[in-house]
Amino acid sequence: MKPIERVKDFLKKQEIKLEVIEFPEGATETCELAAQALGVLPAQIAKTLVFVGKKSNVLVVTCGDERVDQKKLKEYIGDKFRFARGEEVEELTGFPPGGVCPFALKSELPIIIDKSIERYPVVYTAAGNAGSAVPVTLEQLLEVTHGKLLSVCGEWVEKRA
């Protein structure tokens, strides 16, 4: 089953109704192109990042304009992390880099939703490939991922929104 089909099947079984948006190939290869196709700011394109530690792995969802502070991540989880390599991302999530969806994961991972997501009423996560998106509110994202809302990026500033 293709990753995007796994996401669609997962969403059909949820109480909250989320829709997958698909784009023509190449239309959303970068954050900027995805934002343009959706008519939103690049920051509203949620990044789903995988970090590998010595004792554990973790998935972080943040706004497209944020960077994860790995020291903060270590404070919360108690492990030192590095970015997952492409093959590790696919092995842990079942999704290719650039298309990682924060739900319908291949294996269970702790999920952190960065507080930067609070800036927007809706953000757009990938849905299994680089040519897809799922519009989702913070509340829906927390519900569907069972994630924790924490601040693991630099403190976002209202004027950047």
Describe the structure.
With 161 residues, this protein is of the alpha/beta class. It has a single domain, classed as YbaK protein. It contains five helices and eight strands. The strands form two sheets. Strands 4-2-3-5-8 form a five-stranded mixed β-sheet, sandwiched between helices. Strands 1-7-6 form a three-stranded antiparallel β-sheet. The longest helix has 10 residues. The protein is globular. The chain starts with a helix and ends in an 11-residue tail after the last strand. 40% of the residues are buried. The model has no long low-confidence stretch (mean pLDDT 91).
Summary of the model, kept short:
This protein has 5 helices and 8 strands.
Put simply, the count of helices is 5
Helix content: 25-40%
In CATH, the homologous superfamily goes by the name YbaK/aminoacyl-tRNA synthetase-associated domain
What is the strand content?
A: 15-25%
* Structural category: alpha/beta
Count of extended strands: 8
Mean pLDDT: 91
The parts where pLDDT drops under 50 for at least 5 residues are none
Main beta sheet: 5 strands, mixed
CATH top level is Alpha Beta
What's the overall geometry?
Answer: globular
The strand line-up of the biggest sheet is 4-2-3-5-8
